[in-house]
Design goal:
The protein has about 70 residues and is mainly α. The chain is built from four helices and two strands; from the N terminus they run βαααβα. It has one domain.
């Protein structure tokens, strides 16, 4: 659940679902990142990642790890 600018895994799943990427509820950060990377290109993903990384937004550690893995070259 999102409180103020705290993004948890459920918020992240919801945002990705809105972009057309379904993530399993019991997935690990590594598995979720692999699913997102395999689905590329995803319309709106760069903007969603940018919003997540904006100043003032706090990501739970699991969400931060997923974002880092998605952005890895």
């Amino acid at each position: 659940m999102m409180f103020a600018d705290l993004v948890d895994v459920e918020d992240f799943r919801q945002r990705l679902r809105e972009l057309g990427v379904e993530l399993p509820a019991d997935g690990t950060p590594e598995r979720w990142a692999a699913i997102v990377r395999a689905a590329q290109p995803v319309d709106g993903l760069p903007e969603a990642i940018g919003a997540l990384c904006a100043e003032g937004v706090t990501l739970q550690p699991e969400v931060r790890r997923i974002v880092e893995l998605i952005l890895m070259p």
